């Protein structure tokens, strides 16, 4: 397991708290919250930037957990053994690969696990253009194994079709014990917190210095932390708490599929991709519920054997996680009803934000969404620390709910891996030149075979047809198409555009299929005359704010209201005001 520690030069400068970032596919992503350039080997003052965390005295720690993380670029990864049968013979079993490239140049694909046999008739490769198209089988003469872990189309050098969906099923061998990443993380953090030296005598560089530990995770590792809790790893082997606080960002209601044979923790389900992996699996929520389809009872909280080891948790998601990763299942029951907050968990939607941020259209029809969530992450991290160390409750949850009338339920499509939200139900406006299909990810109850409870998948890939769906909700929108629920940052509260957490692909990349992590930024017209000329129902900038000064005043008010709710720090409030003053809105 790779490890990386940044600590104060003199520990008397330390606040005696660990900030543990779980790497995303081996990479450090702390730069956003830390106001630094980050990078995978942050050793210079320039890379430290403003050093939000460092200025408070945090010791920063990373450790590898992901078997799928590449070893280049100073990535942090972990090496684990392959499982074998009791008699020492190798294990084989079904494996599945979702394959899609948004280019027309890729000519081969590396499998997650080596094939047990190179006989092509024992495997199957299919292709379809769009998600809901019928898959067509590529005959054995249309592809080959380049080696036991690589396939390619024939004749050699033939590229995979741009944005087409290929699926490969085969018998694999040598499954890695990926779940050791859970135990390794637990034991390493516990060692830093309590240990003096390891079993070989190497001293703990933080021995006696750590009083509180916090995890921070972005996207994939946030799903890892969901499993970490559910499977009971926040309690070490001596019955002690591992993490006092957990800040999960962009994890949705899913796990990472790490504790199964032939696990592929690098996968992520979105509205077009990777639906058939065991990621969106019950339990989704923290309270103990009963799955109406399997009859199982459970919740993320069942992983805590003792309330004394229960972490304080902030689950923070963008709009994208609600549209493409079924994040509402974190805080609803399995009939779609609102759940009360557990005493140790709060939930937040950052309204109208995509998974990350962007600007160009890329593979999608509209420019991407530039909204950034890091200002909220900083404020909520401070709130998490105050909750853990002083008992000060964090800001109230801010999410779509039936109680306040902001949640709308998606409709599952029989035989499809996705569903939709009707336009009228959502409240989506008719914006000229903008397509709306209501495409949303639906989690299904899948059959992975009779040994699935043991972590063994025998039916792979499973089929979505006729399998029941779990209810999924998203936020309603206002007359501009901006979400009404959640934390409305100034770009949403005082908008210059319609901002969404979803997007649709353009013609060259699978027309109207989901844009996965992308959102949209659909600008308002500057004047009433311009919007009327195009038939845009959304008010123009001039109709909203009158002047540039009026816009700045509105942004200032919105930012300070968020500060009063402890959702923005003073310096980030000033940043929003400065950005508004420097903008060209009505200039």
Write the SSE topology.
Layout (H helix, E strand, L loop, with lengths): L2 E4 L10 E6 L8 H4 L10 H4 L3 H4 L3 E5 L28 E8 L8 E3 L13 E5 L7 E3 L4 E5 L2 E4 L11 E9 L6 H15 L17 E7 L1 H11 L14 E5 L39 E2 L6 E2 L13 E7 H6 L20 E6 L23 H17 L16 E3 L1 E2 L5 E3 L2 H4 L12 E3 L31 E3 L14 H4 L3 E4 L19 E4 L4 H7 L6 H5 L2 H17 L5 H13 L5
Parallel strand pairs: 2-3, 2-11, 11-12, 12-15, 15-16
Antiparallel strand pairs: 1-3, 4-10, 5-9, 6-7, 6-10, 8-9, 13-14, 17-21, 18-19, 19-20, 22-23
Task: Tell me what you see in this structure.
By secondary structure, the chain is of the alpha+beta class. Among the domains are: 3-80 and 177-390, 3-Layer(aba) Sandwich (Rossmann fold), CATH 3.40.50.1820; 92-173, no CATH class. The chain has helices spanning 31-34, 45-48, 52-55, 180-194, 220-230, 319-324, 374-390, 423-426, 490-493, 528-534, 541-545, 548-564, 570-582, and strands at 3-6, 17-22, 59-63, 92-99, 108-110, 124-128, 136-138, 143-147, 150-153, 165-173, 212-218, 245-249, 289-290, 297-298, 312-318, 345-350, 407-409, 411-412, 418-420, 439-441, 473-475, 497-500, 520-523. The strands form seven sheets. It has a seven-stranded mixed β-sheet with strand order 1-3-2-11-12-15-16, with helices on both faces. Strands 4-10-6-7 form a four-stranded antiparallel β-sheet, with no helix packed on it. Helix 6 (319-324) links the parallel strand 15 and strand 16 (345-350).
């Amino acid at each position: 397991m790779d490890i990386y520690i940044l600590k104060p030069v003199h520990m008397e400068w330390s606040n005696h708290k660990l900030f543990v970032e779980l790497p995303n596919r081996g990479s450090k992503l702390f730069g956003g919250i830390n106001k630094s350039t980050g990078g995978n080997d942050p050793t210079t003052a320039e890379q430290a930037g403003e050093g939000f965390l460092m200025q408070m005295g945090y010791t920063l720690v990373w450790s590898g957990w992901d078997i799928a993380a590449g070893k280049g670029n100073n990535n942090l990864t972990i090496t684990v053994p392959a499982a074998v049968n009791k008699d020492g013979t190798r294990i084989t079993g079904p494996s599945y690969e979702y394959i899609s490239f948004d280019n027309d140049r890729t000519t081969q694909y590396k499998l997650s696990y080596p094939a047990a046999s190179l006989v092509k008739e024992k495997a199957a490769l299919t292709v379809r253009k769009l998600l809901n198209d019928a898959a067509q089988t590529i005959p054995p003469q249309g592809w080959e194994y380049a080696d036991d872990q690589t396939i390619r189309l024939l004749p050699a050098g033939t590229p995979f079709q741009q944005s087409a969906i290929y699926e490969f099923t085969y018998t694999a061998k040598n499954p890695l014990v990926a779940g050791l990443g859970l135990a390794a993380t637990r034991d390493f953090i516990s060692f830093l917190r309590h240990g003096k030296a390891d079993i070989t005598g190497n001293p703990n560089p933080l021995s006696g210095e750590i009083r509180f530990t916090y995890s921070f995770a972005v996207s994939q590792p946030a799903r890892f932390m969901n499993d970490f809790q559910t499977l009971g790893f926040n309690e070490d082997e001596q019955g002690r708490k591992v993490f006092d606080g957990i800040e999960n960002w962009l994890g949705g209601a899913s796990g990472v599929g790490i504790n199964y044979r032939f696990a592929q923790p690098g996968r992520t389900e979105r509205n077009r991709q990777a639906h058939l992996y065991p990621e969106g699996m019950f339990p989704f929520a923290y309270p103990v519920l009963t799955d109406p389809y399997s009859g199982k009872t459970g919740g993320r909280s069942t992983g805590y054997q003792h309330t004394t080891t229960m972490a304080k948790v902030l689950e923070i998601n963008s709009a994208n996680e609600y549209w493409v990763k079924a994040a509402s299942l974190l805080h609803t029951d399995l009939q779609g009803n609102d759940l009360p907050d557990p005493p140790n968990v709060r939930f937040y939607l950052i309204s109208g934000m995509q998974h990350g941020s962007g600007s160009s259209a890329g593979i999608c029809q509209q420019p991407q969404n530039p909204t950034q969530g890091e200002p909220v992450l900083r404020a909520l991290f401070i709130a998490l620390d105050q909750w853990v160390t002083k008992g000060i409750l964090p800001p109230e949850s801010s999410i779509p709910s039936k109680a306040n009338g902001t949640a709308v339920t998606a409709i599952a499509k029989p035989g499809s891996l996705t569903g939709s939200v009707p336009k009228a139900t959502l409240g989506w406006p008719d914006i000229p030149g903008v397509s709306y299909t209501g495409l949303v990810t639906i989690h299904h109850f899948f059959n992975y075979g009779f040994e699935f409870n043991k972590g063994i998948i025998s039916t792979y890939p499973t089929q979505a047809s006729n399998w029941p769906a779990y209810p999924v909700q998203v936020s309603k929108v206002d007359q501009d198409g901006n979400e009404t629920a959640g934390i409305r940052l100034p770009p949403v509260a005082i908008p210059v555009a319609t901002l969404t957490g979803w997007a649709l692909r353009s013609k060259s990349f699978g027309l109207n299929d989901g844009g996965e992590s992308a959102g949209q930024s659909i600008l308002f017209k500057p004047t009433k005359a311009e919007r009327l000329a195009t038939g845009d129902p959304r008010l123009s900038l001039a109709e909203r704010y009158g002047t540039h000064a009026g816009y700045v005043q509105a942004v200032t008010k919105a930012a300070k209201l968020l500060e009063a709710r402890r959702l923005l720090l003073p310096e980030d409030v000033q940043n929003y005001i400065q950005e508004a003053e420097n903008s060209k809105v009505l200039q």
